[in-house]
Amino acid sequence: MIKFPGPITVSVLLTGLLTFSEFAAATPSADTGVLAQQLEQEFKGAYSERLDPVGKVRSFELTAAPAEWGVVPPYRTAVWAYNGTVPGPVLRIKLGETLKVKLTNNLAQSTTMHWHGIRVPNAMDGVPGVTQPPIKPGGSFTYQFTPKDAGTFWFHPHLNSPEQIERGLHGALIVEDSKEPRYSQDLVWVMDDWLFENGASIYGQFVTGHDLAHDGRWGNVVTVNGKYLPSIPVKAGERLRIRLINAANGRVFSPAFDGLSPKVIAVDGMPAGAPFPLSQFNLAPGNRLDLDLVIPKEAAGKLLVVSNRFGRSQQTLAFLDVATKTVVKTPTFEPPKAAHFPAWTEALAAPVAHEFILNAERGGPYGISWTIDGKIGHENVAATLPYGKFSRLRYTNKSGRLHPMHLHGQFFKLLAVDGEPAQENFWRDTLLVGPKQSVDVGLVPLDKGLWANHCHILEHAEAGMMSTFKVE
Ligand code: C2O
Ligand code: CU
């Protein structure tokens, strides 16, 4: 017969459990060393530390400049665009190839390019004042690197981003792996929203008090590939790979497909440990999802693709326009998945290397400052993480707003939400931290340098919610 201890003993017991991680952090023991080794061992083979270039250089030229774009016909919207289109051209290369992009700045202000999610050499990361100087008007900069991972990535400026990205500067970078199966169509959907006034003119006040007091700038028109309510032609029987990218300043999308059941095969560019059904996935700014979707043979007409979130009103994103005259044979193959994904079931016993405190304060250049550990901006080197070793990080949101936290140059796994173990069978580079929520993540940094760590609600980042961490 088990005897339950009295209330006092219970509280002592609980206190002991809750403080275990701090205890472990304060007194490194043989046990934490063994645990760390075990976690690093589990990580091995998840993704490669280096990738040897095959020797083929793929060169592109991008020019950032003012342009006109038809988001909502018949209006012409004055935008800022790469090579005249919003989003910019899709850059597609094969794994092993070297990407070379000459970026010319024909804007009236400085810019840079960040390659979101790509494990680049630090000097190619595009963070002004950290990894490179700003590219001045009329100037240019050539980025060159060999992506180490195949998948769905994107690029955008890292300077005055609430305005530059909102006005249309962003695009997709797709790294293909020739070993992956061939879908009937491989589609890239860059999702965005726009805050329009007077027809379709971009509202010209940026980083407003309203944006800062809320979850950034949410627009009144949502688009896929720069178009309002596009019809995307598909055929009955087709098996589609749809690569969703959230390029909005602040909006969280939660996509759903009318009566269809897509599977998620990759998150933030990296194949999941196993495919899983798409349902209520919060696609925060910066996040990507790769979907595997079969258009049923009996499908007909226009299928709706919608998005909603937290009970906010539903928005129609696009239509799948199903041609039924030609029914194609559905390709059969196992969807791609990660070769190896660590379970890290013991990871919550590892010490917390750093707890980032997310909060707001009055003051600063915008009247409201969003802070990390009470500080603003990338001058705050918030943490140093050991190269090749397991680190557990905690983000604690003291505020009532959303913060999709993005780590440059690394992938991490969600370990816990509010202290409760959480199971996600995939890597992320951006994680939505909810109001008053605390999340723990684990990672093994494989790229040295000074990397940005910031909220991907662009207005929050601009008003301070930006820091760096060092990997050495
Ligand atoms: Cu897509 Cu530092 O961001
Ligand atoms: Cu934020």
Question: Could you write a compact summary of the structure shown?
Answer:
The protein is built from six helices and 32 strands.
CATH topology of the largest domain: Immunoglobulin-like
Bound molecules: CU-O-CU linkage, copper (II) ion
Main sheet specs: 7 strands, mixed
Please work out how many helical segments DSSP would assign: 6
Q: CATH top level of the largest domain?
A: Mainly Beta
Q: Structural class, from helix and strand content?
A: mainly beta
Oligomer: single chain
Low-pLDDT segments: 1-27
CATH superfamily of the largest domain: Cupredoxins -  blue copper proteins
Helix content: under 10%
Summarize the structure in words.
The protein is mainly β. It has six helices and 32 strands. The strands form seven sheets. A seven-stranded mixed β-sheet has the order 13-12-9-15-19-17-18, with no helix packed on it. A six-stranded mixed β-sheet has the order 23-22-25-30-27-28. A five-stranded mixed β-sheet has the order 24-32-31-26-29. The longest helix has 14 residues, at 30-43. The radius of gyration is 23 Å and the shape is globular. The chain starts with 6 loop residues before the first helix and ends with a strand. Copper (II) ion binds at residues 370, 403, 455, 457, 460, 465.
